[in-house]
Design brief:
The chain is of the alpha/beta class and about 260 residues long. The protein contains eleven helices and eleven strands.
């Protein structure tokens, strides 16, 4: 891992049956970067993101993943102290991953279990400082008015912002967001992406986000990594991703769905 990298992936492969979901993938993410992972369905984006947190074990071999100076996994084996590594990494899922029967406040507060102690957090024995931190996080993402409402009764956009509030309570150094706007309406999707940008810019949190929306990737992320058939086929500034490269990645149909400000 380079001195300024908070996340490093080296020669990582992952095989399911006869199919290689990842094939020798290498990349690094510097502190304070916001990186978009793009590519067609089945290109390996979500598998890579899950491997970065040790949710998916990579193939045995020379592959290795490090985060924040600590090993996540190597040679097909998850690190023994993976829980400590994960305590500084927040994963935001497409389907929000909130507990529907719990209030939004409680869901956000669960992000602080690593700081407040498991049993105290589990039974809701939060200190005044804990409660203030949770409400502050909910206020920052614009959903503090719904703190007492059960998560299952909230809209998709409200739940996703609650999931990001949980990352703030967790005091994460890295946010890994897996298709966080895929199930949201355009207005909610824009708010979530702008919120991730704010956390990246104002708090210095490194963000890696997988996206199907190429326009969002190029609008909100300064760097884009494109995967195709499990390999990195582009890694560079979003401004450098040209039309012919997008066609190579997605096929000619990309021109039919690409947003109006398409690259030259």
């Amino acid at each position: 891992m380079t001195s300024d990298a908070v996340l490093s992936v080296s020669a990582v492969s992952k095989t399911y049956g006869q199919r290689k979901a990842l094939n020798g993938v290498s990349l690094s993410v510097a502190k304070g970067e916001m990186v978009a992972l793009i590519g067609p369905s089945g290109s390996g984006k979500s598998t890579l993101l899950r491997a970065m947190t040790g949710f998916v074990a990579i193939d045995a071999g020379d592959g290795r993943i490090d985060a924040l100076g600590r090993k996540v996994q190597a040679r097909g084996k998850i690190s023994d102290d993976i829980r400590q590594v994960r305590s500084r990494i927040c994963v935001v899922f497409q389907q929000f991953n909130l507990v529907g029967r719990l209030t939004l406040f409680t869901n956000a507060a669960l992000g602080g279990l690593g700081h407040m102690g498991f049993w105290r957090g589990l039974f809701g024995r939060w200190s005044r400082a804990d409660k203030d931190a949770v409400m502050g996080a909910l206020h920052r993402v614009g959903v503090s008015d719904y703190a007492g409402q059960r998560a299952a009764t909230l809209s998709g956009g409200q739940q996703q912002r609650g999931a990001i509030a949980r990352a703030l309570v967790q005091k994460a150094d890295i946010i890994l967001a897996d298709e966080p706007v895929a199930s949201l309406d355009p207005v909610s999707a824009r708010r979530v992406m702008e919120l991730l940008c704010d956390l990246n810019r104002d708090d210095g949190i490194s963000v890696v986000v997988t996206l199907h929306q190429v326009d969002y990737a190029m609008r909100y992320c300064s760097r884009v990594v494109a995967l195709k058939a499990g390999r990195v086929v582009y890694d560079g500034p979003s401004s450098g991703l040209a039309r012919d490269q997008l066609i190579d990645i997605y096929g000619p149909e990309i021109e039919e769905v690409f947003w109006e400000g398409d690259p030259k």
